[in-house]
Amino acid sequence: xxxxxxxxxxxxxxxxxxxxxxxxxxxxxxxxxxxxxxxxxxxxxxxxxxxxxxxxxxxxxxxxxxxxxxxxxxxxxxxxxxxxxxxxxxxxxxxxxxxxxxxxxxxxxxxxxxxxxxxxxxxxxxxxxxxxxxxxxxxxxxxxxxxxxxxxxxxxxxxxxxxxxxxxxxxxxxxxxxxxxxxxxxxxxxxxxx
Amino acid sequence: xxxxxxxxxxxxxxxxxxxxxxxxxxxxxxxxxxxxxxxxxxxxxxxxxxxxxxxxxxxxxxxxxxxxxxxxxxxxxxxxxxxxxxxxxxxxxxxxxxxxxxxxxxxxxxxxxxxxxxxxxxxxxxxxxxxxxxxxxxxxxxxxxxxxxxxxxxxxxxxxxxxxxxxxxxxxxxxxxxxxxxxxxxxxxxxxxxxxxxxxxxxxxxxxxxxxxxxxxxxxxxxxxxxxxxxxxxxxxxxxxxxxxxxxxxxxxxxxxxxxxxxxxxxxxxxxxxxxxxxxxxxxxxxxxxxxxxxxxxxxxxxxxxxxxxxxxxxxxxxxxxxxxxxxxxxxxxxxxxxxxxxxxxxxxxxxxxxxxx
Lengths: 194, 358
Prior knowledge:
heterodimer, A: 194 residues, 2 domains, four-stranded mixed beta sheet, 7 helices, B: 358 residues, D-Maltodextrin-Binding Protein, domain 2, 17 helices
């Protein structure tokens, strides 16, 4: 690579942006700017003349970027991921990962492809992080709710812990519902009683 | 009613993309009134925020079809010069449905705060205003929803009639439809051309004044089409036919005024457009709100959905040519293709729908 490519990242998720920036720097790219939204993008593009702009595919700010490139050929042009590898699989995986990319006029798509791939990988692992965090929180919530329902059963129905647990489990099995559903119903029901 | 004859379906589970717009109604109605299920399709509807995102999701193969701006399939080569995929349509879902709204501040400075449907007086007032504006003043900004959209064509047509074009004093930019009202409120833009309900919403809240209904500027312009990729159509011709049948029937259903009233609360739901029914109701009842101080006026044909007995749903190459001629007034359209409009596919759907009509 004769010259290191300069990149502007537009991403409103700070943690993810951090991950992407770190990896791109480690791979030898110049991170010219990281913006939370495309609101300040125009002056940044004028100042830094990036080789490419990486942006979340869901970002409504992409429209602003596309209209810039449409109006003024000095701005990054549509849309690198449709040309970088040329094959449908590359496009599909970029779209699924949620990455979109714009590149400067005259740049070879081959040169921007590795940067898009790095962003794709980071977007995907951020997605997995988020999902596993949500799963953990869900499990925590579930355990708390079940414990609370058991406590109410123990207090109001004078059951011991073992019996309260059995009651919940049997109710769930008989009504073909989850323990969580049954626990929530019991909490609602027992709380509404004086 | 006879059961609908069903084509052979290559796939039954389908995902369609749409934006938060009143004329996404055919998709929502086809799902909620059972038109999809009657042709054997199980359809998931996914809301997107911007036209660029919707376009890329469809081309990336993460959805089967989309309610898309009519010029988009024609100008894919302009938008994505390196993309090898094509888009095509065999059904124009609707014509019309857009209007031009100026900020309250600008409309008051222009002396047209009562609003208007035909746009003529507003256009001349804007021309005088721009002429008197000092060169040092910040430019006026008008927004449209996509570079190659009916909105851009309508906005430029309105400006052109008044002898205006974008220049140093007047800039055009692109914003997603659902961001228009917020951008107008913040003063980031001075006006926009957008689909409903975003004009009605700004008018009812007193944030903007409607100065032109686009169906009066350029009647019966194709607005939304059912778009699929060329390769998807190749591998799913039967499913595509079933989709067009169901959507043509949904459009037909939306031709009745009472049906439209019934559709309003469904469209308004949180999982669909997530909007106040009071903002959706007027345009579907052909009522045009010009501002918060004037009574709504009649605007026949505010939304013109496809209908088996009219030609408004037929995507002919002639209609494609007319759209491309308008695009060519402001951008080179070399490589654009009228073949993306497939009247033959429309005829298939029409024949199939007529087969089982009483």
